[in-house]
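Homework help thread (please don't just give me the answer)

Our assignment gives two proteins as sequence + structure token strings and asks us to describe the second one. The first is just a warm-up. Here they are:
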Amino acid sequence: MAMFETFSKRKKRLETARQQDVYQYECLPQPFRVQVVHIWNTSIGIYYSSSGYLTPASKLWDAIFSTMCRERGVFFLGYAEDDQDKQCRQFMLTAATDEALDIIELSFRIIDRISRQLGTQEKYGAQITQDANDAIEELNQRFREHGIGFQYVEGELVRVDSQFIHAETVKPALSLLNQAGFDGPAEEFTLAFEHYRHGRLKESVAEALKAFESTMKAVCKARNWTHSPGATAKPLMDTLFKNGLIPPELESHFAGLRAAMESGLPTISNRTSRHGQGADLVSIPQHIVAYALHLAASNIVLIVQAHNSMK
């Protein structure tokens, strides 16, 4: 069934297009918290204690519980009479953002480094049905899905905006597109990340290229440079270079850059999303889509900054 874009959805999307980042870092929505608990249930397993003996899965819960209590300077994370796993779950659902991120990082470090070492029988007894790699992949996907700017990488939660390429390309691109005359590409660029967060990878690449092309059209409009109505990336770039967006004396130096712009993002999009995929299903790896988004951001930053600095 086709999804209908309501007024409120459209309003929220347009408001998001005016933000300075495509991720937020202050709020963990309740559905996300519940999804983390679901991942725990399938990747850590059930808590069981008998006559003082803890199963391997119960030891994982005990490690999470005791470490969090020690670091917070408390004896319990919830009701004292509840088992450790239940207290951890309740804490995840109710804690402040930073504290919830603390237990997420700790728990997934234990899943990553200890849970993955459990034997087949131990996992079966604990009712573990999700391996560590899949659990981490799902967590990172849930972060993206909810627009939360964190990823679990090598034992730590890392802010996306602490990564050089995001800080130096994506955020500046959003900021530059916030100026007058760039409403269309701003909306398309934000929508590209919206598709990416929800796993709609072909649509994400297509919107990234549309944002790149719309940025060039916006510059042409602002400077009264003519182009055909249906112009795509290459003829639009021809127009920009012909009109001196890059100074003529630097064109030879930027020849490789121009070739990269012409053959990079448009080629990815044409081969994966803009044209029919034929008889065989075309699947785009997520890292290629991330590359396409960052490439689009880099191109947008270059074009708008060149436009702003051009007399």
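The one we have to describe:
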Amino acid sequence: MTGNYIPPMGEKVPVEKFHISKLNIRFGEPFGNSEEDKYLIDNLKNGRIITPFKARPEKNGYGVIVGRRRFLAKKKSGAKNFINGIDCVIEKISDDEAREVSLVENLESLRKTMDPITRAKGLDSIMRGAAEMSLRATATRLGIPPSNLSEWLSILQLNPKLQKAISEGLMGYTDGLKIFRLNLDKNEQDRLTKMLTTQGQKALKKEIFRLQRINSGKKSRGIPPGIYEVVRVTWDKRNSKEKIYFKTLSKAASKKGITISEYIKEFIKTNMNWIEKEII
């Protein structure tokens, strides 16, 4: 059994002849530890596969392109072979067709369970493989709204570290979309990545919100955390001396064309030697 050999219907094929194809959208994902996986394995110990998994000739065996979990569960349950046409369907299909049929088969779970980066890379692979198929044509072919497809693909524009954070669940998919829509350069994306790893997801969400306000033309509420120290001074208008101080500082700052805060900061810098003496 080598090369492109297709066994006839009803023929038993040894289990060791099968492997998960690299064109399977879920290639490399773990199997066997979740409760759902264990339940499926137990169910198939004494039962048979209801919906055959699909495979194609690859090298000296057969690559499973659809039904990865069914195949692995039956294999783990102790199966010695699979019957073509009953347990599996083996047929010759191209690389592009294999990618597409795997993606379409998993489309519903793609929407619900698959991590967004794996989903996006699978879609991108289909588009590139099919002679650079357009986004709209791919969406029509897969039966997905073009806006959804565009949104799913957009997070591939994030830097690799942010993509990894989304894939591992360290950052939400919606936060990734927000960062993409901010159209940030590499340095800004790197800064957000560092913020996520050092300060956590809560701090990142606040910073994304701040950047969104700036992009929408609204004044930023607050300043980037961890960069500046803020000192606020309040003036009591009921106190005659404080009222005079405030007016005097206002005039001095206005004369220089700066704000009161800038004027006070400049005054402190100029008189730092005197301040240091007062400390001593």
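TA reply:
I won't write it for you, but here's a hint about the kind of observation we're looking for: Residues 52 and 87 are 5 Å apart (CA to CA).
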